């Protein structure tokens, strides 16, 4: 059962039941209270809700204490379909899709800041101002999408996973990541000194700034926040440098360098996650980020402010579970190399990926053949010495496991310098199908072609500027492309080489999220114990949805999730994470022997997980 939704004015709306093919399966129903109608239908029918945008429609429902099980996000799915057709980035709204299907002028999408400012959508939407959706358009666009999806292998799962991810994103933004403002303030005070006032630098930063200036001599005043002044100061000291990047500074022998490096690190913390960030983003013991599903072309998420995907390690001490609750922190081990193994179907590679430590399982390929006599040469041409101790260490200090890791990362990201060249040759010889999989993706990219994830997420086409730059030399008799053209070709090839792996990893992660979200709702509240004091309004048990006290997904970053759970349910959550990872594996790759192990820690604070 599917139900199309169009939010109307003053809390009302319009519903229409649909079949799985998207065609109407019942009459239009005008409801005066959309929230109440959703609660009733969710309890009685548990439909898949078809609406324009979860980011707009769902937050008002969450604020009213309502949670739904499934949805079809028309805007997210339209983006996926446009990308598959080589039209990435075109307008994706319901109105745009409607106009495109009718051959009419396509309206531009609303700016992102307008999209995210719809918390009171049901209260202020008005049919005349463009703020409400048209039920006829919602139904028609969904039907068109269902017809397109039916002809694309794997795309139905991609659309469902992306839509499920949108529900998770909205719920995490609503519930928030447990965050201790007191711990955060104490960490900042320890590192930077007391909170300053009047726009002044914190005491530690000011002390470093004074010492940096003094290191250049009494005649030179240097503001460490000014790259131009730093460059000028080093030039005056006879040390001209092209930039103030850390790796450039580390090559210099000057007393100001360690001070500058420390200043840059602390200043970054103060600017990105200092007291101003704390005041803005943390309230009621929660950090509520604004997640953007599919915000990166590969399908990875982004955030619109708050930096949830870039929490500094030092601040993980501030992520603290509520009393009587725990954090279950789960990280997919070696996700992208395992995805490559499952994609390529290379027999030897998949056998290695059936073990817990993939790099260790591959390490034999980067050691001497055990059938050779003692003192034989390694596969990469290096010689064994007594200091190796049987572990595969060579003069540079890389173990066989490290070599396997370097070779895999070089294959996926396009590395090809130094020792990586030799290691890639070993990888190619021992695992030819895996090597060829990413090489084929790179060649397709260099030709200007499109590549796709396992489920059909598609990379953007190259720009018109790229095509113009690289068009010279298309004639086979022409000289090989040189200079900027060659660089552009290699860059595109590196992008598509990694896209097929990273985008499929994003597909897997979305499948994991959807499965885990579903499993968590079945755990229910503990028989006793405290409730989270700051998680916001949740649905009551009577509406058939997740009751108060249910474990919640509160954080997601690429291959890592955090669940905030009553402590007595932590073991059940751990089991749910493992089961969800295995379900995601089966959904994407069938009966592959490749395993996707999760490294899981049950802790009181995030910093204790790693």
Task: Describe the secondary structure blueprint for this structure.
Elements: E1 2-7, E2 13-18, E3 29-31, H1 34-45, E4 48-51, H2 54-63, E5 70-73, H3 74-84, H4 94-101, H5 112-115, H6 121-124, H7 135-150, H8 155-175, E6 177-178, H9 181-192, H10 203-215, H11 227-236, H12 246-249, H13 256-273, H14 275-281, E7 282-283, E8 286-287, E9 291-292, E10 302-303, E11 325-332, H15 335-344, H16 347-352, H17 358-362, H18 400-413, H19 419-430, H20 432-446, H21 464-470, H22 483-523, E12 552-557, E13 560-566, H23 570-589, E14 598-603
Parallel strand pairs: 1-4, 4-5
Antiparallel strand pairs: 1-2, 2-3, 6-8, 7-8, 9-10, 11-13, 11-14, 12-13
> Largest sheet, order of strands side by side?
3-2-1-4-5
Strands, total number: 14
What level of helicity do the residues show? 40-55%
Rough outline: globular
Strand content: 5-15%
Radius of gyration: 27 Å
Low-pLDDT ranges: 116-121, 123-131, 368-395, 526-546
Class per helix and strand makeup: alpha+beta
The overall average pLDDT, rounded, is 86
Count up the helices: 23
Gap from first CA to last CA = 43 Å
For the sheet with most strands, the description reads: 5 strands, mixed
């Amino acid at each position: 059962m599917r139900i199309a939704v169009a939010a109307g004015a003053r809390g009302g709306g319009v519903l229409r039941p649909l079949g799985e093919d998207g065609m109407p399966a019942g009459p239009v129903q005008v409801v005066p209270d959309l929230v109440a109608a959703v609660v009733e239908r969710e309890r009685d029918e548990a439909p898949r809700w078809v609406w324009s945008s979860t980011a707009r429609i769902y937050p008002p429902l969450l604020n009213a204490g309502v949670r739904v099980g499934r949805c079809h996000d028309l805007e997210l799915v339209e983006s996926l379909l446009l990308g598959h057709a080589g039209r990435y980035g075109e307008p994706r709204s319901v109105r745009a899709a409607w106009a495109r299907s009718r051959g009419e002028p396509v309206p531009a999408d609303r700016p992102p800041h307008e999209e995210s400012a719809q918390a009171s959508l049901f209260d202020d939407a008005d049919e005349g101002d463009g703020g409400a959706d048209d039920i006829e358009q919602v139904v028609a666009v969904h039907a068109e999408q269902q017809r397109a999806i039916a002809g694309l292998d794997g795309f139905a799962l991609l659309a469902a996973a992306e839509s499920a991810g949108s529900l998770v994103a909205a719920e995490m933004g609503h519930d928030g990541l447990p965050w201790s403002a007191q711990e955060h303030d104490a960490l900042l005070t320890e590192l930077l000194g007391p909170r300053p006032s009047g726009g002044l630098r914190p005491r530690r930063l000011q002390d470093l700034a004074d010492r940096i200036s003094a290191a250049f001599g009494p005649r030179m005043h240097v503001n460490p926040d000014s790259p131009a002044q730093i460059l000028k100061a080093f030039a005056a000291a006879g040390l001209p440098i092209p930039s103030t990047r850390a790796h450039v500074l580390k090559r210099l022998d000057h007393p100001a360098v360690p001070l500058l490096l420390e200043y840059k690190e602390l200043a970054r913390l103060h600017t990105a996650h200092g007291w101003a960030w704390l005041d803005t983003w943390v309230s009621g013991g929660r950090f509520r980020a604004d997640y953007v599903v599919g915000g990166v072309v590969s399908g990875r998420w982004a955030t619109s402010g708050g930096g949830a995907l870039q929490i500094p390690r030092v601040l993980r001490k501030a992520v603290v579970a509520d009393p009587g609750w725990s954090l279950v922190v789960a990280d997919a081990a070696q996700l992208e190399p395992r995805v490559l193994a499952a994609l390529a179907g290379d027999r030897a590679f998949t056998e290695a990926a059936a073990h817990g430590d993939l790099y260790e399982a591959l390490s034999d390929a980067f050691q001497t053949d055990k059938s050779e006599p003692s003192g034989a040469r390694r596969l990469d041409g290096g010689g064994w010495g007594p200091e190796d101790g049987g572990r595969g260490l060579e003069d540079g200090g890389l173990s066989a496991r490290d070599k396997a890791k370097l070779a895999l990362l070089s294959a996926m990201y396009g590395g090809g310098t130094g020792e990586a060249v030799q290691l890639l040759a070993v990888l190619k010889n021992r695992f030819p199908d895996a090597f060829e999989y990413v090489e084929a993706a790179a060649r397709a990219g260099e030709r200007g072609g499109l590549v796709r994830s396992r489920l059909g997420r598609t990379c953007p086409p190259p720009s018109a500027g790229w095509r113009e730059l690289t068009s010279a030399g298309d004639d086979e008799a022409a000289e090989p492309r040189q200079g900027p053209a060659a660089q552009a070709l290699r860059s595109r090839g590196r992008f598509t080489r990694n896209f097929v792996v990273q985008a499929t990893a994003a597909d897997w992660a979305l499948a994991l999220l959807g499965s885990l979200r579903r499993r968590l709702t079945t755990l229910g509240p503990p028989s006793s114990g405290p409730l989270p004091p700051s998680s916001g309004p949740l649905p009551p048990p009577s509406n058939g949805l997740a009751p108060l006290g249910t474990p919640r997904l509160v954080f997601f970053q690429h291959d890592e999730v955090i669940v905030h759970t009553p402590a007595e349910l932590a073991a059940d959550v751990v089991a749910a994470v493992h089961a969800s990872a295995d379900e995601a594996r089966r959904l994407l790759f069938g009966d592959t022997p490749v395993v996707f192990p999760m490294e899981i820690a049950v802790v009181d604070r995030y910093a204790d997980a790693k």
